[in-house]
Design a protein that fits this description.
With 397 residues, the chain is an alpha/beta fold. 36% of the residues lie in helices and 26% in strands. The chain has a single domain (2-174, 272-389), classed as FAD/NAD(P)-binding domain (3-Layer(bba) Sandwich).
Length: 397
């Protein structure tokens, strides 16, 4: 069958690899004109890495990943160590080490593996038509393409999502999560944190953090609770960070000083979408942010998109009644779990960003002297239930 995929991001390319390996003809269209991923890096927890192993790029991903052996929390103002523990139990329970990776590196790998001859950039889809036997997409330039099915991996503002919703269904709207994220890449810096640790400074509902990625680099991010729509001029560089984190610990000041705004600094308002259950209509389905746009507070956004690709591949490898039936089975495999992760991230963000001050202060207190057991329980709780484990679950240690 000919599969048209709209979107060449992590979800679209991984789905393309999965379906091409099953012998389908895959063509991917994306409105971007060159590979410029949004965001500097992403967390690949064990469930996401397992999908990449299944897609045949496990060794390459391991080479791109940072050696994140430990997790450290520091008090934001003083730099006092609140807790410091190994993440080895996550690997032992899940059966796979997690890796932070630079997004551009991972996306370039997936695009190369799916095949650049299958990817067409600068093509914006403006219309979708399904006649019951074929799906036709219309592009902004008036050209069209036709395939046996369409997978919309076209992001948070997905046109495909609008198409698959039932007539008369409530409008699906993005909701502001209450904070802005600044992120990028810097060289590894011992003044900020250990080269093998995920280090997070916390206070006042704000966070400043670094994670190691390949190439002796840190992926950094800052969370700043603030209203949506504030003006920001890229010429301002790190000025908003200096203001928001004035008086914070020396490690945070060293982090801000290390940022080269011209080389790597992104500012992203964080939004999500309340989960919904309709992911497929006829020969058209959605995956990734189009289906479950989430805040990054539990680090499962990319992993959830990779789970989509896995489930889609399994559905097409095992079901033969019809394309429509297979896409509905894919929807049933994914909608509930993906939606649950969106709500977990929303709840986590509410707790960590002082939208409930008492809850945030209680969280800070729980970090002091923590042995990591409770935090690891939360991390593996997000991994448990992944379709990639085929019901095997996590092994106790």
């Amino acid at each position: 069958m000919k599969v048209i995929i709209v979107g060449a991001g992590i979800g679209g390319t991984s789905a393309g690899i999965a379906l091409a390996r099953l012998g389908h003809e895959v063509v991917i269209y994306d409105r971007m004109r060159e590979n410029k991923p949004v965001g500097a890096a992403l967390s690949l927890w064990s469930n996401g890495v397992k999908v990449l192993n299944w897609l045949g790029v496990g060794a390459e991903v391991a080479a791109l990943g940072g050696d994140m052996a430990d997790m450290v929390y520091l008090e934001g103002h003083t730099g006092e160590t609140m807790c410091d523990f190994s993440l080895a139990p996550v690997t032992a329970m899940a059966g796979q080490k997690p890796y932070p990776v630079a997004r551009a590196d991972l996306q370039a790998l997936l695009m190369e593996r799916v095949g650049m001859d299958r990817i067409h950039l600068g093509r914006q889809v403006v219309g979708i038509a399904d006649d019951g036997t074929k799906v036709t997409v219309t592009f902004a330039d008036g050209t069209t393409d036709t395939g046996d099915l369409l997978i919309g991996a076209d992001g948070a503002r997905s046109i495909t999502r609008d198409y698959v919703q039932p007539e008369g269904a409530p409008e699906i709207v993005r909701e502001y999560s209450g904070y802005t994220n600044f992120n990028g890449l810097i060289p590894t810096d011992a003044a900020v944190g250990r080269a093998t640790a995920w280090t997070t400074y916390v206070a006042d509902g704000k966070r400043a953090a670094v994670m190691p990625v390949a190439g002796d680099r840190f992926y950094f991010w800052f969370d700043v609770p603030q209203p949506a729509g504030l003006e920001y001029d890229r010429a301002d560089g790190v000025a908003p960070l200096r203001a928001a984190f004035d008086g914070w610990a020396p490690g945070v000041q060293a982090l801000v000083d290390a940022i080269d705004p011209e080389a790597s600094l992104n500012r992203v308002e964080i939004w999500d979408i309340t989960p919904f259950s309709t992911w497929a209509k006829g020969r058209v389905a959605i995956l990734g942010d189009a289906a479950h746009n989430t805040a990054p507070d539990i680090g499962q956004g990319a992993c959830s998109a990779l789970e989509d690709a896995f489930a889609l591949g399994i559905a097409f490898a095992t079901n033969t009644v019809s394309v429509e039936d297979t896409l509905k089975r894919y929807e049933q495999m994914r909608a509930e779990r993906a939606g649950d992760l969106v709500l977990r991230a929303r709840k986590r963000g509410y707790e960590t960003h002082a939208f409930d001050v008492d809850a945030t202060e209680a969280w800070y207190e729980s970090l002091r002297g923590a042995d990591g057991v409770g935090i690891i329980r939360g991390i593996v709780g997000n991994i448990d239930g992944t379709p990639v484990d085929l019901g095997g679950g996590l092994r106790a240690v």
